[in-house]
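Human: We require from you a standard protein entry with sequence in single-letter code and fold as tokens, and nothing else.

Assistant:
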Amino acid sequence: MHGIKLDSIVEKVSAGNRITDEEYTVLERSGDFYQLGSLADGIRRRKHPENLVTYVIDRNINYTDICISACKFCAFFKSPEDRQGYLLSFPELLAKINETQDLGGTQILLQGGLHPGQPLEYYEEMVRFMKSTGIHVHGFSPPEICHFSNLSGEPVKEVIGRLIAAGLDSIPGGGAEILSNRVRQLIAPRKCNADQWLEVMEEAHNQSLRTSATMMFGHVETKEERLEHLRRLRELQDRTGGFTAFIPWPFQPGHTVLADIEKTTAFEYLRMLALSRIYLDNFDNIQASWVTQGPKVAQLSLSFGANDFGSTMIEENVVAAAGVSFRLSEQEIRQLVADAGFRPAQRLMDYSLV
């Protein structure tokens, strides 16, 4: 790598300076586990000196499992012909929202399959209905927005504007997988491509919506493509500053078409987490993924760059469909955070504290 020395990169990171792609690659190849953890932890402490670890009380509502995308990594979806598929009624939505609010919940993470049968007006109505309860609607990841655009013939800008008018509060970072068109062609050819995903997020930011960003790694992508993903997020964040957080998690192969792919180890997950914190210098918040990793590894994440414990996930269906189900109550999250030596604090989507 043109003789870039590991020591000089370590010095650069410790001084709070941005690393280049070449330097990332050297760290990824040569940085040892504890060194990466220590660098990421240093950045985390610099950005969050108050020693808080935040979490949000929310619920994942998947309004439908009917989906025309048929992604190879998904064990949750049903094809439109499948009689077993569902679309939640508004009374069912209301019951789930009320239960969430009774548990102190502040937001709903609303996502669903790419249903071929519902017009854009239906989703506007859904958001208006949900907003009548006072809950924060963190909904419709970029593949859904692109799908609504295709169905309605309206440009993405228009779709986002209409959903905001209906009451949409923020957009989750789902559906990013790996932001490389080669990878997407292999695992999710019918879903929006990498450029479209980024366009939706840029447009959302331009219309003053905050969004999060994710990365699902450990399937068919190369190490270079993971870096491409991080680079494209960092460039967009430089332009808009609209991302609140980054959440990397390993692909869960169970019950999917890609079931024979070896599962990412906790060791590899923590390395990727640390590298993300080091490279994404313009992201304030990095989330631990206890949903895929379990509570113990999530605790370790707090020493590898993560400063947020994510959500209590009163309900979660997609990862569970892949055969992985960890459950944590608010009390358990607070305990895990405290046991790891941090102070737990409940937050809202924009990271302001409750």
Residues 1-30 form one domain. The two ends are 47 Å apart (CA to CA). The longest strand covers residues 210-217.
